[in-house]
Amino acid sequence: MKKTALHDTHVKLGGRIVDFAGWALPVQYASMITEHKAVREAAGVFDCSHMGQFFIKGPEAYDFVQYMITNNLDKVGPGRGLYSGLLYDNGTFVDDIIVYVQSKESIFIVVNASNIDKDYAWFHANLEMKGYKCTLTNRSDEFSLLALQGPKAPEFVEQFFPGVYGKLDTFGHAELTYQGALTFICRTGYTGEAGVEIILENKSAPALLEALVAAGVTPCGLGSRDTLRLEKGFSLYGHEINDTTNALEAGLGWVCDLSKPAFIGKDALVKIKADGVKRKLIGFTVEDRPIPRDGEKIVDADGNEIGYVTSGTMSPILNKGIGLAYVPVTCKDATINIATKRKTMIGTVCKRTFV
Amino acid sequence: MKYFTKDHEWVELNGSVATIGISVHAAAELGDITFVEIPAAGKVVAKSGVVSVVESVKAASDIYCPVAGTVSEGNAELDTKPELINEDAEGAGWICKLSGVNAADLTGLMDAAAYKTFLG
To answer: Which of the four pLDDT bands, split at 50, 70 and 90, describes residue B30?
Structure first.
C-alpha cells in the first residue's frame, strides 16, 4: 500500500489504518460517529493527500482546460476555482475535479486518488492531439492535502493563516508559505460545512496536522468523510458517477455549460438532452435495517429491477438510513422498493440533500 | 471459558446453554455498531448458520453461530444500545443464549490463546 506523508502521524494519533484504493489511510480514529458530529458541530481535519494535483502552465493553459472540462472557466477569474465534470466523448465520466485558476497561463486541478493515472493519461493524450501551447505536470506525489472542515474551521484557519479566510469566496484560493512549504488555502470541501482544503508540500504537512489537532481540531478518518458527503448528497466517483453514467442523469447538468463553444462530451450531452434523459438520481431514506448499500437493486411491484442504489449509509445526524439511487426518469412514486441482500424494504424518496 | 471462530464470533458453554457474541477484535474492525438483529427466542440455528446481523456505519455483517441450538434469549439491551458491543463485546455485548447445545460442537474452535495467535 502507498503511504501519505502523514502516515506516521496517523499511527501516532491512533488512526485505524485500512487499504483505501491502494493507500494506507485511517478509516477512523476513535469513532466515525464522533468524528462526523465533530465536523457538523465544531471542526475536523481529514488527510486527503492521496488525491492528485496536476499543474497546467503556458500561453494556452486556459484554452486547453476549457476544452477538457464541462464547466466554464469564464465564470471565475484568477484566484477562484470551480467544480467540474471531466467527460469522455459519450458524456460519461472520466472523473469529477476541482479546477483552480491562478492566471490564464497557470491552472491547477485536483483529481480523485483512484483516477490519477487515468486522468493524467486523458489530459496528456488530448494535449498531444490538439497541440495546445502548455505543459502538463503531475505533482501528486509532492503535495499533501488536509481538509479542515466544520462551523469552527474558519476560526482555526484564522489562527494558523491570519487574514486569509475572510478574503476567500467559495472556491477561492490563496497561495502562501507554511513553514517553508508552498501552500494553497482553498475554500472548498466535501462535507457541506465551512472550511478549507489546504494543499501543501509534503515536508510541512505532518507539522500542520499535529498543530491543528493540538489546537483542538478533531482528526477524522475517511469513514466519516463518506457519511458527511452522503448527508449532503454529493456524488462520489465510482458510486454515483463513473464511465457508465452521464453528467445529465447524475444531476450534474449545472456544471455542464452547453453554451461553451466546445468541450469533450458536449455533443453527446446535447443529444442526450434532446432525446430526453432516461434515468435520474434520487435520494431515499429507510426506517428498516440493515440499510441498503451500494449495488443493491430497486425493483417494481412485480420484483423487476428498475434501478440500483449507488450509496447507502446510516446518517449520524438523522439516525436513520439514507442513500442515493438511480431510477427511471418516469418514476414519480413517493416510495421505492429496495431489494437488499437480506430483504425487500420500502424507501421514502426525498431530495438528495438529507441534512 | 470462551472459544472463538475464524469469523470472530465467540461462544461460552455452561452445561447445555451457550452464550454467543462477536470478539473485541471484530467490534473494533466494524467500528461504531448502529444496529443488531436480535434473534427471537425459539429460533433454531445450525452450527455456522446465520444467527444475527450486526450493522456498523459502513456495512452489515452476518453473524454465524459457532454451535447448533435453539435461541432461548436475545440480548434485548442491544435494541436501544447496539454500541454495547463496541464497549464490551465479550461481556455485556453478548448477542444471544442458546439451549440444547452439544459440547462436541466446540471441537475445532479456538481457545483465547489460539485466537490471539490467529489474529497475529
So the answer is: very high
Selected for mutation to probe chain B from A27, A314, A315 (highest B CB count within 10 Å) is A314
What is d(CA A310, CA A296) in angstroms, rounded to the nearest whole number?
A: 8
Residue A28's closest CA among A236, A219, A281?
Answer: A219
Write down the domain spans for chain B: 2-100
Grid coordinates representing A212 are: 491543528
CB–CB contact A342 B28 (8 Å): no
Inter-chain contact A289–B31, Cβ cutoff 8 Å?
no
Q: Is A227 in CB contact (< 8 Å) with chain B?
A: yes
Q: How far is A225 from chain B (nearest CA, A)?
A: 12
> Are B31 and A316 a contacting pair at CB < 8 A?
no
Asked if A289 and B28 come within 8 Å (Cβ–Cβ), the reply is: no
pLDDT tens profile A16-38: 999 998 999 999 999 999 999 99
CA dihedral A176, A178, A184, A188 (to 10 degrees): -120
A31 touches chain B (CB under 8 A): yes
Is A328's pLDDT higher than 90? yes
Asked whether the whole model's pTM tops 0.90, one would answer yes
Is the Cβ pair A289, B35 closer than 8 Å? yes
Helix axes A116-130, A61-68, angle to 10 degrees: 120
Average pLDDT of span A160-164: 98
Is B46:B95 a contact under the CB 8 Å cutoff? no
pLDDT digits (tens, 9 = 90+) for A260-301: 999 999 999 999 999 999 999 999 999 999 999 999 999 999
Question: In CATH, what number does B2-100 get?
Answer: 2.40.50.100
Nearest Cα neighbor of A126 from A84, A68, A52, A66 is: A68
**Separation in Å, CA of B88 to nearest CA in chain A:** 15
Domain A278-350 classification at class level: mainly beta
Mean pLDDT of A132-145: 98
Cβ B31–A27 below 8 Å, yes or no? yes
From A315, A302, A306, select the one nearest A229 (Cα to Cα): A315
